[in-house]
Amino acid sequence: MRLFPMLLLLATTAAAHDVTIHRDEYGVPHIYGKTDADVAFGLAYAMAEDNFWQLEEDYIRQLGREPEVYGKERLESAIAFRLYEVEKRARAEYASAPRAMRAVLDGFAAGYNHYLSQHVPVKPRLLKTLEGWQVLAFQDASPGLAGNGVRMEDVRREFPMVGSARPVTAEGEEGDEGSNMWAIRAQKSASGKAMLFLNPHVGFFGGGQRYEAHLESKEGLQVSGFAILGTPYIRSGFTAWHGWCHTNNNADIVDVWMEPEKAEGVESWEEEIATSEGPVRVRFRKSKHGGITGVRDGRVLAKRGAGATPLALMTQRIGMAKARTLDGFKKEMERRAITGSNTMYADRGGNIYYLHGNAIPKRNPKFDWTQPVDGGDAEAEWQGLHGFDELPQFLNPPSGFLQNCNSTPLLAAGEPGSISTYAGYFVPEQDNLRSQRSRQILTGQAKFTFEQWSKAALDTKILLARSEIDALGQLSSYNTYIPELVKALQEWDTVSTLKSVPMTLFMAAYLLRPDRTKQTGFLTPETLQRVKAELERDFGTWRVPYGEWNRMQRVHTSGREEGFRDDKPSTGVPGAPGPVGVIFNFYTTTAPRQKRMYGRMGNTYVAVVEFGKKIRAESQLVFGQSADPASPHYLDQVPLYAEQRFKPAWFYRSDVRKHTKQTVRLRTGE
């Protein structure tokens, strides 16, 4: 790549947009435009440049059109799209949206379309153009068919054409997708400035990938962070004034009602779903409680989610980015359009703030809302949303810190707070090991420098290890089988490194535990004997460094079209799954006939930010900015990831200019 900016002028006759995209040394797009719509145009264009295949794939899925590409085996998502009438609602919302918001939706769609007009060799599989209403429909958070007490056998009674159930996380095992987030105020900061740590753990491949970008418009948008591929806004990030991030929570936001098939108000209709194997005619039904997703014992199961309209969600998210004060940010959060997420906030005024949940339906707590409730019982009706003031929240706690790792809010500020009496459906989370390790880190240091904050964000201490190793030492039988392995574990400092052999032993035993719902009691002589045999079979010795066994390898963006291979380049990683109590999260999978473990999800976009008159920020994105193997940004962030380092997240124009390696100017409609 040239060492000076390359200016490309691209023109078309589409609606008027004038956007400049500066790509920095890591390929991160810094997108500047006059209007928010211009910036949305540039964001879509940049996403398409970096990963068009996945961008189109995600829209195909979200628009319920997978069967047109993959056949009848993908009918489930198409049926859900039509059952919840996503297109009908999105078109109506789009038509009534304020002009400025409609312009953002149209701008993003136009950016996708402009990319295709300028890259004729790129052949979309299905979506040759996007429309504004489709960008809105992409944000829809309607529930799926199964789940929330609805079983796949219930679904197949209503929709016989739906295939077999997909694998799900075993009950009781901590789910894969999650996040860590921390904030500290002045009393915990060596510089006297608030600091924030943003850390989503999601899939490296397939839908929902994180995309780093920096957006600026003359309409008040000045934000850096990550967008979810396909969305026209930054989901978590920072501005010159503040920053925010999210973790998932388990608050109940979707419920199911069981009612007679011929209950009053049940409506039905039919639609034809196009597939690559020919059309399929499907009957749909809904009641006053929502779309009917299944049948059980002669009664129908109707499901409803608490999600606000996609337009309200977009309005809130863009408003969060444009806020200039804590009061302004809280005013946006009072819209209560976000579901399933907690929010952490810090600003240059030194404030830190935590909010647990956002849109949560108010219910009668006498019912078990994890199972279908009686649709004929008047007491089993939702009573609106919980008020904003009813949500668990902390502002500038005496501890000086806030943290959440998909865990109980009661310990967000360290010691149990004043929030303690909530219905089970409201705050079902427990205190997990990631949260416990977070509190150890945050209480264990009086004040953090920015460098210490950055190091802590990628910490690899394994909290679960010491108790498991101590329990193993109490078993007299270990000396009969594997004394050398036990000795290696007992001498280990329980920190994961690329060179650590005990870490390999510990994680191999964890992954071999017979009961996947249990996180403890797996380190036994019998398990270690099996670990020893398997490592010696695959590597010729049990003394295998963790970095030799635990690897990251970039395959096709779908994660489906090619598998992980030991004979292809890969890199060792010191991270581990969250349930073992580690901050640097890295979940792996086995591959047929391969001996190594390969990363499939975990740390994706990670950032640390210090807020002052001038912000300081660093970040990393798993693998690199581009999904094109020919791009210099396909794997250029792998060394950062593997070596637990960050890159600068350049934010100010003067810094962006110094580090720009390519500039693209997009002008349309002139």
Architecture blueprint of SSEs:
Blueprint: E1 7-12, E2 17-24, E3 29-33, H1 36-62, H2 66-70, H3 75-83, H4 86-96, H5 99-118, H6 132-138, H7 152-158, E4 178-184, E5 195-203, E6 210-217, E7 222-228, E8 236-238, E9 242-248, E10 254-260, E11 267-273, E12 280-287, E13 290-296, E14 299-305, H8 310-322, H9 326-333, E15 341-347, E16 352-355, E17 373-374, E18 393-395, E19 401-404, H10 433-444, H11 450-456, H12 465-473, H13 478-481, H14 483-490, H15 501-511, H16 525-539, H17 546-549, E20 550-552, E21 571-572, E22 586-589, E23 597-603, E24 605-610, E25 616-621, H18 638-642, E26 647-648, H19 653-658, E27 660-668
Parallel strand pairs: 1-27, 3-6, 10-17, 20-23
Antiparallel strand pairs: 2-3, 2-27, 4-5, 4-19, 5-23, 5-24, 6-7, 7-8, 8-9, 9-15, 10-14, 11-12, 12-13, 13-14, 15-16, 16-18, 20-21, 22-23, 24-25, 25-26
